Amino acid sequence: MNFRVLTQRMFLTLALALVATGVLAAPPSYRLAVGGLACPFCAYGVEKKLSALAGVERLETNIEDGSVIVTMQDGMTLDEASARRAVKAAGFSLRTFEQVPPGALEGQ
Prior knowledge:
Elements: H1 3-24, E1 29-35, H2 40-51, E2 56-62, E3 67-72, H3 80-89, E4 93-100
Antiparallel strand pairs: 1-3, 1-4, 2-3
């Protein structure tokens, strides 16, 4: 094997390793479908309750489709029961709760 081929393979291996660790290191995110989320005031109420949960790093609310993306800090997770309680405390109902696969939110 010549030096050029070896160098290309090493570069490709390194690039793949960096991409894989970047995806695996992404903090967990969850998509919550919230029933009754219809206006910015509603969004504020839900965001206030969800942001009070331990480990929440970022919230992205989409009023049009009634969803909230909750991104947790590294090493932290969100369980459905806690999300349900927070949404209910804000006066709304949690319709669905799903973990978003790593990398699925990039480019949105």
